[in-house]
Fold these 2 entries.
Entry 1:
Amino acid sequence: MRPSTLPKLRRISQILFFVLFFVHLFGTEYRGSLKGVTGDIRLPLPYPTIFLLSDPLVALCNALASRALYRGLLWSLTILIPTLFLGRFFCGWICPLGTLNHFVGSLKSEKKRGLKLIESNRYKSWQSIKYYILIVLLVSSLFGGLTLAVMVPISLLERSLTVSILPGLNIAFNAGLDYAFQTNNGVVGFFAQGAQWLLNATMLSFRQPHFRQGFFLGVIFIALLALNLRVTRFWCRALCPLGALLGMVSRWSILGIEKSPASCDDCNRCLLHCQGGDDPIPGAQWRKAECHLCFNCVGDCPTRGIAFKFFPGTSTTRTAPQLQRRKLFTSLAAGLAALPLLRSSTSFSVERNPQLIRPPGSLDEPDFLARCIRCDACMKVCPNNALHPTLTEAGLEGLWSPMLVPRTGYCEPSCTLCGQVCPTGAIWEITAQEKAWLPSATSPNAKPIRLGTAFYDHGRCLPWAMATDCIVCEEWCPTSPKAIYLENAEVTDPLGAKKLVRQPHIDPSRCVGCGACEFACPVKDRPAVYVTSIGESRSRTNQILLQRVTNGSQS
Amino acid sequence: MGNESDPKNRRHALIQMLRLGGLATATTGVGYWLSARSQHPEASEVATFEGHKSIPNDPNLPELVVAHGDDPRLLVRKSLEGLGGIKRFIAQGDVVLIKPNIGWDRTPEQAANTNPQAVAEMVKLCREAGAKRVMVADVSCNEARRCYQRSGIAEAATAEGAEVILPDSRNFKRIDMKRSLGSWQVLEPFLAADKVVNFPIAKNHELAGLTLGMKNWLGIVGGSRNWLHQDIHRSVVDLADFARPALTIIDAYRILVRNGPTGGSLSDVAVTKTLIAATDPVAADSYAAQAFWKLDSSSLPFLKIATDRGLGNKNFAKVRTRFMSLGG
């Protein structure tokens, strides 16, 4: 095999998995079907979040925090086991965020040319930051704190694309198409039709999505990519906790570099395109835990002085990451301290945020936070654009986890897609029958999963405050019988005349908190009916009504 | 550097001054041109709509057909025959919009959307009559794709050769609907059609009393149509006046007797196996209200307003009616 074959194969693999990632990301969206359905509506892809499921760090955090492994996370073994034998092939050959960083890092840059480029690709001591980040994450996971999971790379990529990049592209492409259609030019229109068909079949959403913090999360993502112009794959080398995990795991791997200093003429070309910053150069220790197995050094060496071999001689190899004992203890301490410190503020334990309405099937808050990795796949799949990343609503601990914002979208009564795509069980997978918002023939007494309870703002409600008919909320209420009941009331209109209107009331024992009333309320800016989290069935404490026990079962 | 009287330096200075002068003039010109263009942004022009061709009255044919039977497809076919045959309504080459109720993420058994088999049969009849295009569309309340899918209408209508059109944001046009309505986003397929067929399902509705044929026209309007609820009876009649369908068919195969218009529980549904086809939209609504809910214009003011407007006759006993029993 020629030395340049391996980098070529790697590039093909990177492109393949990059495309595959987008196939799955675009597949994490309900696109409708002509087929009438009486059962649950599901996504056609069997594992729409397969990239998250096969991420060993997701699995490890989940296992540490929940002392179990949620369905599907066994897929992570397909990455973890080969890494034991081969090393960080995932980073160089598969990771879609790595591929993106790789691509941006290979763009021409003033800060990285000639000798500067070679110097920038030598191992730097700051590359060990990622191991300390990993330790903080794993230690706090052990106690149920997953805040740092915002840094899980697949999570970061899926989140940034979902809430920011793709909605932005959706706006830009639609604006372009609108402009093309407005030209009323036959040829332009023809191509626009074609482009529209193609875009609709792949990436365009049926309804323009908008997300809270979209811009903010997009800027973070673009900044992380731009760092590659200074240091190639800065994220992968310095920050990525998955890279750190895989680097640690590859300690005993059997694949490694074999350098032959005899044939080396000190040209330094092996450093030119080095991705990991792992010093493949003769005369320095090769750092196995940093190497992405990109094989660029093999391809670039003019004298064939570098080769990857199974069971190589290890005299010039450093197998373990270089960690300082003091920093190690600091990160252990940080991991221990993080969660108590985060929970010292008033959060779900004493002051639940009324706006924090979790998706249907969500576990109670401590368990939810111990599982949610902030991949935001639930936001991608929600057909009503109802789920948004939190900022402070779930405390800093719950940063960027999903919450329902009924004003932008309500929870569709028979929809359970967010639970289907959640890789960690923070939103447990449920069926529409288990959601039980509608009476079912097979389980007539099933208790519904409640998200919260609706309330009226009598000062803004038309029949309550303005002697005007409305009750759109009642029309939309999806339960049967409806959770909104009406009372005939004689009111006085502005001219002093008596008038009969129907004023709406909530029955909290029927309300499931779907938010359809809030979504449909014609008082557009601040709706006259709104949902708060009280009464959510996942919590024992966030309740209003006295629960009576009758015939041994609560009702 | 050089001498100030150096002719070369003077020439450079002159050229520099000419350049700057040109730039200054051009900038000033562009500034004045832009300044002259300044005006308060006006709302874009709103188109009007002339309305659909109505079907001439024929004194030898019934204005209202009420058919009863087991097969929803047969009910459509026979009741149309009773009204004088499909060719009376649909001509060769027509572009037809069938406007069912596809408002909710509900299955056919839950009776919140029009019966899919009945809609499919109507598509088939239109195709048989030589219609060039048969479109099926509604502006759903719940997520449209779920409504189209779960109602079974997308599947059944497509199978008969209809174009099932989702209420995509590109499928709307702002129209001055006149009357007391003003301008609204109106579903494009409605505007593009030569003939429109109103195909609602009969349901309970707390504000309007019932939702039958005329109320179904809220479903061609996008935007904040919920505002129309503030004066629902007049809005319903204005919309019906605007829409002017060739034909109204009320699906009462299953009806939502309570908890409308969403329902959800099978105990809200009555299986009444009836279809009401009419050229008189007011008589059709009036008949359905009386037959299934024992309600009249005293509790359904839109019936009276529509009659006064000349859209039809709320007194259905006075219109030419034919009852058909198709067994079952």
Entry 2:
Amino acid sequence: MNGAAPARIAIVGASLAGLSTARALRARGYAGDLVIIGDEPHRPYDRPPLSKDFLSFASGAEDIALESDEEELAARWVLGTAATGLVPRPGGGAVVQLADGESVQADGVVVATGATARRSMAGAELPGVHVLRTLDDAAALRADILAAARDGGRVVVVGGGFIGSEVAATARQLGCDVTLLVAEGAPMEGPLGPFATAVTDLHTAHGVSVRTGILVRGVERAGGGLAVLLEGGEPVTAAVVVLGLGAVPATSWLAGSGVALIANGAVECDPTGATNVPGVYAVGDCAAWWDTARGRHEPVGHWTAAKERAAVVAARLLGEDRLPRERAPYVWSDLYDCRIQLAGDRIFADSDPIIEVGDVADGSFAAVYHRDGAPVAVVGFGQVRHVTAVRKRLVLPASIITPSLSPAPSPARSPAPAPAIVHRTEGVVS
Amino acid sequence: MFAACPLASLAPGDALRLEGPETDGVPIAVFHTEDGEIFAIDDTCTHQDASLADGWLEGCEVECPLHASRFDLRTGKVDAPPARRPVRTHEVSVQDDTIYIEVSTEAPNLPPGVQA
């Protein structure tokens, strides 16, 4: 590291992005004070299993902890206490105000407060209607799903994203009668595009009723249970309703702080996580880093981004001039016995995808998207080895696209110029 | 100790999954790093059932192909979550252009639902 490391760093958010930042700081030799603030009472846990193994009772809370038993971060943990405000300090850094009236003054602040589940639907507050974001959400949902499986009640899942499909698959595997309602033409159509029909096929083969092109108006009580009201269709009765409507960046606590947000509420950051307030960074689901290839600030709500970008923020906080390299985004979903994998960004493709192995009709294939002949994205169903091989040769769009726009100037951009991210395609290991 | 494969059949950057009576029912992954070193570890990620031989090999680390846990090939130690338990490492030797493996006598750290 070069330059003076901050004497104290406060990380606001005790989930994957926050924990990963703390780990990366210690791994890079940071020996100063580290304070980790989390609004949930729990130590950091892994969220992807909440819709899969944890929901199916195959794993418990202890199994999804993110820290290992012998891990020692030498951090002060402030858990069960939400941050309520941030006041920048003249020399950089900020004071973080907490719900219990205390505050933490720090030379470096990392905003890693994640996102909250969207509940924007009439009836979202009714008993038996769930969202899934936290461990407590998942514990409540799995109790109701288990009861539905026992009593023969129907589980209705609303939402065309990853969580909707994963909850539908898990509930089905627990023996529930499951209906999945999606607005799009197929579940997971946003990330998977034309290959999303393979998800419909998977669900259908396992006995989930998938209804596409459905707009849901709300949920209401009906008899002893619930009814999901559809736009232009008969209501669907349900014992349990799960709303997978997406997530909202958890940044309302930054109101009035001077930290710039983009329209959806995510924190506006440069390509390395720096906000417009010197010494304040943001990473994970609450952050929108400048995306050179897209020419805009782009919120990225993926697990791997939270982990990998945390290392970039740690390097910046410590004044390092070489940052960890960036890799193509990678997301996965485990539905039934099928591993669905998606890496890269297919929106940058200039041609139709090529099926390199397998067959879409068989539900096992890998499709690769190209731009100027270079692979920019891969979609795989049950083709783990091939997807890894393609991921290693994916080209980052920023390295082959000339950006037409530059980041919008911010009033108080961090004074240190951001070092360039080392691209994997350059073959440089930092 | 058993003969895993000819050295020439495992190019640098490649990995091989071995499963048979020699491995005591626990699949083993053999890696040939870009630097020319050879390592053997249990093939199954300790987090969830996935073959590490299908993973992303970089330096002396392999990243699980599914959930991006990272293991140090030299020690088996976890370098990145979600895995929390190390994989077993096995002793490797190369004699007469053949890779030999001495299977660890420790108990493997298999993920939930996977049996030896």
